[in-house]
Specification:
The protein is α+β, with helices and mostly antiparallel strands. It has eleven helices and 13 strands. The strands form three sheets. The chain has a nine-stranded mixed sheet with strand order 1-3-2-13-12-11-10-9-8, sandwiched between helices. Strand 2 and strand 3 form a beta hairpin.
Length: 330
């Protein structure tokens, strides 16, 4: 049975005999040597070919997926547009946030759209990196994020900021009248057949958009498959079929990796193929390669950074040099 036919169901296929099986086994063997890698799932055409726990929690145990939560929030925005809760990515955010906007807010805030938040092009000073601590210890995360000075034009340079994703969580709640947790469970959990535990809330009770969400590796797989299958799962449409294409359209570029960014997804060429990935601190990853009908999930040690350490580049290399060639022959 394929994931695309039954919500939440993924068939585990035995590895086929032949050279492609040997190649996939070698790729798994290479992954086993990554001392920070905990769990690995590899699926192709909706069938799970690899499920491995090298160390750490079981694959059905929720773990902190860090900034992969931004990919989840982007998916919820896609559902909200499909359901008519939001008008579209071009919708201005100030009317949605209403009285949460500071009275002395920069007039330029009126130009910021839902899409600008999704693509990290709001133009506001970042709340990530060296600014993260001051933001999450502030008494009001929304007002703090909206009070940052503009350091770029809305829609201009990409400046990765968790505050952008948190504002999306807040406006989803304001527009729907329901918490982001309720929306996630109803809009994604139910159709994908996955568990979504409650996660961190800000001082005003809004669920953290962009970090500290707990999902199991087996819950991350259907999320990647949902995008690969153009917004349908088990024959049911979750969001509009053009949302994956819209989300995977390059808009900004990361100043640290050089990779492009869309709506909650990074974009990278691997082995001559376009690959889209969600990335969380420490190496929590979802990779989708539509050309090979493949989705890969990796979870890692959350205590160490994956960017500056070069670990995430090692994961990219593993996917590009080991798994994609193996899947091409499968």
């Amino acid at each position: 049975m394929k994931l695309g036919l039954t919500a939440g169901a993924v068939a585990v296929a035995g590895r086929s005999a032949g050279a492609e099986s040997v190649s996939l086994d070698r790729a798994v063997g290479a992954a086993r040597d990554y001392e920070r890698l905990h769990g690995l799932i590899v699926a192709q055409e909706g069938r799970v070919l690899v499920e491995e726990v090298f160390r750490g929690p079981a694959l059905d145990q929720p773990v902190n997926v860090k900034s992969v939560a931004k990919t989840v929030i982007a998916a919820l925005v896609g559902v909200a547009i499909h359901e008519g809760v939001l008008k579209g990515a071009d919708q201005p955010v100030v009317p949605l946030l209403g009285d949460l906007v500071p009275e002395n807010a920069d007039p330029q805030l009126q130009e910021v759209t839902v899409g600008n938040l999704l693509s990290m092009q709001a133009g506001l000073e970042r709340t990530s990196g060296q600014n993260y601590g001051a933001w999450v210890t502030s008494p009001n995360w929304v007002r703090h994020a909206l009070s940052r000075p503009f350091v770029a034009e809305p829609g201009g340079e990409m400046r990765y900021s968790t505050g952008n994703s948190h504002l999306l969580s807040v406006l989803l709640t304001r527009a729907s009248g329901r918490s982001t947790l309720e929306l996630a469970r109803d809009w994604l959990g139910a159709p994908l057949g996955i568990e979504i535990p409650a996660w961190q809330q800000d001082p005003q009770g809004y669920y953290f958009g962009g970090n500290n969400m707990a999902l199991s590796p087996r819950a991350l797989l259907p999320l990647g498959e949902l995008y690969r299958l153009d917004g349908t799962i088990g024959g049911a449409r979750v969001f509009a079929g053009d949302w994956p294409e819209i989300s995977w359209r390059p808009r900004g570029r990361s100043r640290w990796t050089g990779d492009r960014y869309g709506y909650g997804w990074f974009i990278r060429s691997m082995a001559g193929r376009q690959v889209y990935y969600g990335w969380g601190y420490g190496g929590q990853m979802i990779y989708v390669c539509p050309e090979l009908a493949a989705t890969l999930v990796m979870t890692s040690d959350t205590s160490r950074a994956s960017g500056a350490s070069g670990y995430v580049q090692r994961l990219h290399d593993l996917v590009e040099r080991a798994f994609l060639p193996a899947l091409e022959g499968a």
